[in-house]
Amino acid sequence: MSNIYALDGKIALVTGAGSGIGKQVARQLHALGAQVIATDINIAAAQATASELGANVLSLAHDVAETGDWASVYAEIAARFGHLDILVNNAGIMMSKPFMDAPIDILRKQQRINVDSIYIGMQGAVPLMEASIAKGAGTCSIVNISSIYGKVAGAQFAAYSATKGAVRALSKAVANELVKRKIRVNVVMPGPVATNLGADWEPPRHADGRLMTPEEGLAAWSSLMPIGRLGEPGDIAPLVAYLAGDAASFVTGAEFIADGGYTAI
């Protein structure tokens, strides 16, 4: 019996693939047979991902907020492969600040990296995906990583929530426009996941104002999760891989939550 989840022969671009969810997504797509282009603003991290995975992985330096970087990445893909089947817009940042203490630049920075990059990336992907369709692909797939904080409120994440809510709306609108081109667009909304996305945060505090230790902070987050733990990148990657492939050929304009029940209570 053939594997309906196989990605053999597909060309897949994963942004922010040097760590966290992006790295695990690159690993998952590669395991299913895809030729992976792993990009990251930290080229050493992208190279480490490529080295770990071995054959069929290309690493490229990529600042997703820069239009020129997108053009360079797509030019490289066009030269090497001639088409693109899968785009996973994973790169992003998460900045925590109480709304009344947050300058507008906190919103603007997250907007450029979390939203503008997806807009630019999707536009640039279309010609390469149309080339894939012309070669006989059934559909192509764009998977945009949003967050549950684009759906529900998170303390001190107003600017971040605004950008991740924008990813949801943008993805649905683009899905509606691209469906006739046989390009599917879907959104994955992870809950709290143990990655380095928030590595620059100030640690959470106890009710009396004392900073929590890393162990106390982890326990505090885990206590909020009905499933009893934070997510791991490996909890998110299989969902992305499903949406990337032909098994999801009837799925577009949809949102998928993977949050251990966080938004169910």
Features:
single chain; 265 residues; alpha/beta; Rossmann fold; 7 helices; globular
The major sheet is characterized as: 7 strands, parallel
Global geometry: globular
Structural class of the helix and strand makeup? alpha/beta
CATH class reads: Alpha Beta
Radius of gyration: 18 Å
The low-confidence runs, each spanning 5 or more residues with pLDDT under 50, are 197-201
SS summary, helix count: 7
User: Main sheet: which strands, in order across?
Assistant: 3-2-1-4-5-6-7
- Average pLDDT confidence is 92
Q: Kindly, what is the distance between the CA atoms of the first and last residues, rounded to a whole number of angstroms?
A: 40 Å
Quote the beta fraction: 5-15%
Helix content: 40-55%
Strand/helix succession: EHEHEHEHEHEHHE
CATH topology: Rossmann fold
Short description:
The protein is of the alpha/beta class and 265 residues long. It has helices at 20-31, 43-53, 67-80, 104-134, 158-178, 214-223, 233-244, and strands at residues 11-14, 35-40, 57-61, 86-89, 140-145, 183-190, 255-258. The chain has one domain (11-204, 236-257): 3-Layer(aba) Sandwich (Rossmann fold), CATH 3.40.50.720.
